[in-house]
């Protein structure tokens, strides 16, 4: 950053600020959406099968599945990992 021209560094800073102000999480699935839309484009799509939910860790995982074009349900984005737990077995 210190070696690039000042106008490039300032443009990057402005782009980061713009994303911070304009991008939010969807109220339904927690995917990314623009601030003026409470629901993401997937949750707003009436052609999606709301009875079929795919749980993903991050928005990038959702984007990878969407790129494949084979899933037509909706998503739930965890925004993190589920903790691993030991399998539970009843006491003898």
**Broad structural category:** alpha+beta
What does the overall shape look like?
A: extended
Uncertain ranges: none
> What is the H-and-E element order?
HEEHEHE
Helix content: 25-40%
Main sheet: strand order: 1-2
Radius of gyration: 19 Å
- What integer is the average pLDDT? 91
Number of helices: 3
General description of the model:
This protein has 92 residues and is α+β, with helices and mostly antiparallel strands. Helices cover 34% and strands 21% of the residues. It has helices at residues 6-22, 41-44, 59-68, and strands at 23-25, 32-34, 49-56, 73-77. The strands form two sheets. The protein has a two-stranded antiparallel sheet with strand order 1-2. A hairpin with a 6-residue loop joins β1 (23-25) and β2. The longest helix is centred in the N-terminal third of the chain and has 17 residues, at 6-22.
Sum up the structure in keywords.
92 residues, alpha+beta, two-stranded antiparallel sheet, two-stranded parallel sheet, extended
Overview in brief:
This protein is α+β, with helices and mostly antiparallel strands and 92 residues long.
Element layout with pairings:
Blueprint: H1 6-22, E1 23-25, E2 32-34, H2 41-44, E3 49-56, H3 59-68, E4 73-77
Parallel strand pairs: 3-4
Antiparallel strand pairs: 1-2
